[in-house]
Inverse folding.
């Protein structure tokens, strides 16, 4: 990828530019959506580094630590309690930072109005759910944001459920799974050699993670 392309994709990490992108796509009728996104643009939870769990072949703990950060840099108070997870330079999560990012705001305003009443709810923050995607020329990271809304005068908080269609709490996506299975069963490329190839592309996708994804997905979707 050319340096200019990398600089471009890095620039779209800024939420304001994503808002302009949404505006140019949907037009003036969605200005209410833009205001909702703007109202929560500084409130995003920091997802747990699931690659540590996947690389070890362990089941997710089910615990979630939510952080509130402003801007790209984290302050001293942004550390998670307990284990220092996600600091490994060779982790899958760390390697994702170097790839282009796609931002998707998954929200249905009409449905929320039907459920909670128009003007009776607002977004307090966004949950981010990331998957690794593959296109023919390169890899990129798809980030899906689901809102946490505050309802009524009592300000009860509700989150919109989200599940990874293939495997919950995982970076796996249909495109990356298809690539792994194609290499394995069509090209006869062993998983450890696939891991080496991904590593050479900058993606720290370990052999154990690839095996876990295959062992979980193949019996489930192809039996």
């Amino acid at each position: 990828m050319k340096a200019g392309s990398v600089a471009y994709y890095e620039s779209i990490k800024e939420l304001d530019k994503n808002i302009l992108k949404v505006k140019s796509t949907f037009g003036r009728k969605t200005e209410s959506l833009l205001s909702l996104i703007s109202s929560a643009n500084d409130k995003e939870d920091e997802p747990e580094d699931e690659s540590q769990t996947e690389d070890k072949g362990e089941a997710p703990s089910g615990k979630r630590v939510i952080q509130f950060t402003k801007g790209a840099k984290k302050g001293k108070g942004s550390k998670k309690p307990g284990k220092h997870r996600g600091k490994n330079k060779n982790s899958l999560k760390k390697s994702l930072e170097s790839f282009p990012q796609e931002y998707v705001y998954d929200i249905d305003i009409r449905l929320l109005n039907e459920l909670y009443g128009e003007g009776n709810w607002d977004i307090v923050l966004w949950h981010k759910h990331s998957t690794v995607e593959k296109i023919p020329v390169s890899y990129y990271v798809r980030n899906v944001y689901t809102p946490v809304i505050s309802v009524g005068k009592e300000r009860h908080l509700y989150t919109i459920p989200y599940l990874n269609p293939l495997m919950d709490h995982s970076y796996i996506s249909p495109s990356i799974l298809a690539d792994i299975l194609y290499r394995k069963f069509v090209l006869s490329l062993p998983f450890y050699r696939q891991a080496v190839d991904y590593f050479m592309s900058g993606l720290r996708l370990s052999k154990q993670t690839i095996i876990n994804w295959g062992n979980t997905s193949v019996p489930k979707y192809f039996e």
User: Anything to note?
Assistant: The chain has one domain: 3-169. The two ends are 38 Å apart (CA to CA).
